[in-house]
Amino acid sequence: MTEADPAELVEQAADAFRAGHPDHPLTVRTGKGPMRLRLDPQRIRQVLDNLLTNAAVHTPAGTEVCVAASVTAGAALIRVTDAGPGIPAADRERVCDRFYRVDKARSRDRGGSGLGLSVAGSLVRAHGGTIAVASAPGRTEFTVRLPVRP
């Protein structure tokens, strides 16, 4: 673990997302001033990359995506939101389970292994944080909460 700014990691992940998914408009929102946290920057970037890629893979081209970083009392929040079709209520609790796919018709060669969100959840928990999902038609939001450690 080292000291890093989650907003800088968000900006880096946004640049990579734009290069890899030019068909998805991306908005980036970060708080004012630096946010210094003790974390593993490579692993948090992996979380961001997984969440952003997930947003692109599971939404049609042209779907807006937003990534935001902010600080609240005792925690940094990173949100990845998309304006896609949403995740059915029956699937929301399981989307971070290993090998779980919402769209059962997707094969591994077309829809991934079902590990991206599971890996993201494990990495966030290793940082003492949580990952949550809220979804409805037209909006899905993953919220990563990382504790601020002295």
Question: What is the general shape?
Answer: globular
**DSSP strand content:** 25-35%
Point out poorly predicted stretches: 104-110
Strand order within the widest sheet? 2-4-5-7-6
**Number of alpha- plus pi-helical segments:** 5
SSE string:
EHEEHEEHHHEE
Biggest sheet statistics:
5 strands, mixed
Q: Tell how many strands the DSSP assignment holds.
A: 7
**Rg computed from alpha carbons, rounded to a whole number of angstroms:** 15 Å
What is the straight-line distance between the termini?
12 Å
The mean pLDDT is 84
Fraction of helical residues: 25-40%
Structural class: alpha+beta
Structure summarized in a few sentences:
With 150 residues, the chain is of the alpha+beta class. It contains five helices and seven strands, in the order E-H-E-E-H-E-E-H-H-H-E-E. It is globular.
